[in-house]
Amino acid sequence: MKKQLIASAVAAAMSTVAMADISITGDAKYEYDHSETAAGVKSNTGNTEMHINFAGKTGDTGVVAKFELDTSGDNGAGIDLEDMYMTTKVGDISVKAGNWASGTGGLLGELEEGGRAQNKIDLRTTVGDVTFYAGNSDRASSEASNTNTAGNATTANADAADGDTALNNNMYAGAVFKIAGNTIEVKKNKSTRDSFGIKGAIQGVDYRYEAMDDNSGDATYIQLGTSVSGVNLGYAAIDTDVNSLVDESDSGVFAVSFSDATKVATTATEQQQVSLSTSLDGTTITLKSGEITKGLSATQDMDYMQVQAKRKLASGATAIVTYTDRDQLTSASAIGSNENLEIELNVAF
Prior knowledge:
This protein has one helix at about 1-20, and strands at about 20-35, 40-60, 60-75, 75-90, 95-100, 120-125, 130-135, 170-180, 180-190, 195-200, 205-215, 215-230, 230-240, 270-280, 285-295, 300-310, 320-330, 335-349. It is mostly beta strands. The chain has an 18-stranded antiparallel beta barrel. A hairpin with a 2-residue loop joins strand 10 and strand 11.
């Protein structure tokens, strides 16, 4: 009788696990980086990084936790909890709440830093062909974060010290709709900022245009792309009245991020880049060439170029070799070359 009870308990436990909608995915990479400054200083560094993603779901409710294991990450070596959020539905409203990062593909993604902040919430619903959304700020800056660093939720203002999920000037709201196959989005990013975006395709040319109207100035982003005889051609540009309006530090398009203060001067006002990409015997080759106006100083522009080779290996891993050459000041008036070679092996599972 005891054996039967034990067997039943084990079977019930296994059945629960089997029926649970739980998944574990992830990715890992090793990076080797060699750089030589315009002054001839050389450095060689390596880094190993891994992500483990846990996702669970029951009905219309899901939860996600994303861990980063890094030897020298933004938060130092060790384990960092990056994303942790839940999604659900309340009637016709989709709810996302927790901590996550916004990607560069979203509205103003190449202009605004899509940082993480605790206690974020995003509400969305669709009426006809229009999706309306609202939530607390997705920007992890002191002016618009909802971090609870002090564990204090008693004051009226949300900032880095207090951490309230405030229903005030940290809120955003917007709408997404389509007209003639083009996707249009309008958004109130925060009390001082409005934005507009449109993307689509015209006669084989993909386009994306985004404009930011802020109290301190305006900024725009444009991206064009097409394919000719197996070669993908691209153009991208940023134009801003005030350098600080552009704070995206991990561009998905540009070889050199406009807001990277370690490479680009804060006097920069514009960036333009052309690119081409094609596949040769299973290897994707991408070339990028660009210029950042006043990228070295108030009177000197920065030129750069990048070539990348990416290939899927028989082992299941992907190898990426990237060479970047950009201008760098060697003195107040002299310009030299800063060269960087990065070799990466990555795999997703």
